[in-house]
Specification:
Layout lengths: L12 E3 L5 E3 L8 E5 L6 H12 L1 H6 L3 E6 L3 H10 L5 E4 L4 H5 L13 E5 L5 E6 L4 H15 L1
Parallel strand pairs: 3-4, 4-5
Antiparallel strand pairs: 1-2, 3-6, 6-7
Helix pairs in contact: 1-5
């Protein structure tokens, strides 16, 4: 089970495709959408990333920054981001610590599962969607949650 709505998002720090170390607490007073996904370049993960790309303006207009997290390396993330022209950064969780912290690890496989969190400006979880196989639903559910919370 994913973390519950109303829960404070745990702080974390991960390397980012922008060349910095992303730290959640450095983004105080900023609503965020954080989505965990299994692997770069797989069909479902590519479609999910591209759906966030194609709807990026919606989140940008709502002042919500988008970040994708998987256990892939920064090098692989950079290639994935460039190939699919993703306008948001990807974070590398090779140690799986953050995926575990957010209850976003596929048991026995050890890679991130597909779960999306919408955080308000105080980093309280106000939206969550957990569905490994429903990559197309993640964007729909988050748009609904943003509209509901605004």
């Amino acid at each position: 089970m994913a973390l519950s709505k109303g829960t404070k998002a745990p702080d974390f720090s991960l390397p980012s495709t922008d060349g910095t170390q992303f730290k959640l607490s450095d983004h105080h007073n900023e609503p965020l959408l954080i989505y965990f996904y299994p692997l770069d370049f797989t069909p479902g993960c590519t479609k999910e990333a591209c759906s966030f790309r194609d709807n990026f303006e919606f989140f940008k207009n709502a002042d919500i920054k988008v970040y994708g997290i998987s256990t892939d390396s920064i090098e692989k993330h950079l290639k994935f981001k460039e190939k699919h022209k993703l306008p948001f950064d990807l974070l590398s969780d090779q140690s799986k610590k953050v995926s575990k912290l957010y209850d976003a690890v596929i048991p026995f496989v050890g890679i991130s599962k597909r779960v999306t969190y919408l955080l308000d400006a105080n980093h309280t979880i106000v939206g969550v969607y957990d569905n490994l196989f429903g990559y197309e639903k993640h964007i729909e559910e988050m748009i609904k949650q943003v509209n509901k919370n605004n």
